[in-house]
Amino acid sequence: MSDAPRSHGRKTIRPSLKPRDLMSEAPALARAWHAQVITLFPEAFPGILGLSLTGKALQQELWQLQTVPLRPFGEGKHRNVDDTPAGGGAGMVLRPDVMGAAIEHARSQQAPGAPLIYLSPRGKPFSQEMARDLATRPGVTLICGRFEGLDQRVIDHYRIAEVSIGDYVLTGGELAAQVMLDAAVRLLPGVLGNADSTEEESFSDGLLEHPQYTRPAEWQGRTIPDVLLSGHHGEIAKWRRQQSEDLTRTRRPDLWNALKTRKDFT
Ligand code: ADE
């Protein structure tokens, strides 16, 4: 794969003033939610985001995805992006000058108000609340690390927020970036056909989702709970609420306890 600019969801235009290998994308679309991803592996995008609802929304220009390949910002003939850790130890650290140049390039094309986030297992845990917040911003700039991560001075200098998608270590931030973008993009206006489905689902009201069933009415000797076939909308809503509460209490006592302290919990 070449280091040519890559764009997803619109035609790429190459302004001629900047060196080609530093141009990752066209200028931002006027209104579309603008996701930027700084990465050594631009070919990992759009990945799953190019499919289904997020992919359709990309084509419809409800959002745009700009990859900023890190390699062209590297040093010397080999475009080195990393070096050994100061003080010794295993692995390599991404150089602050290289990452700094990529960040400057990305931010020069990003709207003010779009957060700058580094995907890292030591970051603040990603949540539905953070996804909702991201969806209200003009977009986001995500930094994917590899190896032992970023030089701390870059994080401090640009006041980069660190975000983790869970307590496990991935090889790099690319999968985590796709998780975050998926969670945010589906909340953008017009992306999901049915507005109710975001409202009713898990986490919107702090509860896990109740079980769902569909035809056939009997499968492997198992039937659908009678109440769901009763046509009684009030009873169905009550049953679902009870199921949600029971699941949340038993599976996620942390969510359940947080919920009980909320004033609006009835
Ligand atoms: N990069 C490596 N592991 C990660 C995680 N758990 N969350 C976010 N970014 C990561």
UniProtKB/TrEMBL annotation:
Main location: cytoplasm
Pfam families from the UniProt entry: tRNA_m1G_MT (PF01746)
SUPFAM superfamilies (UniProt xref): alpha/beta knot (SSF75217)
Enzyme Commission number(s): 2.1.1.228
Protein keywords: Cytoplasm, Methyltransferase, S-adenosyl-L-methionine, Transferase, tRNA processing
CDD domains, per the entry: TrmD-like
Cellular component GO terms, alphabetical: cytosol
UniProt catalytic activity: guanosine(37) in tRNA + S-adenosyl-L-methionine = N(1)-methylguanosine(37) in tRNA + S-adenosyl-L-homocysteine + H(+)
Catalytic class of the enzyme: transferase
Family classification: Belongs to the RNA methyltransferase TrmD family.
Protein name, per record: tRNA (guanine-N(1)-)-methyltransferase
Organism this protein belongs to: Sagittula stellata (strain ATCC 700073 / DSM 11524 / E-37)
Lineage, uppermost ranks: Bacteria, Pseudomonadati, Pseudomonadota, Alphaproteobacteria, Rhodobacterales
Underlying gene: trmD
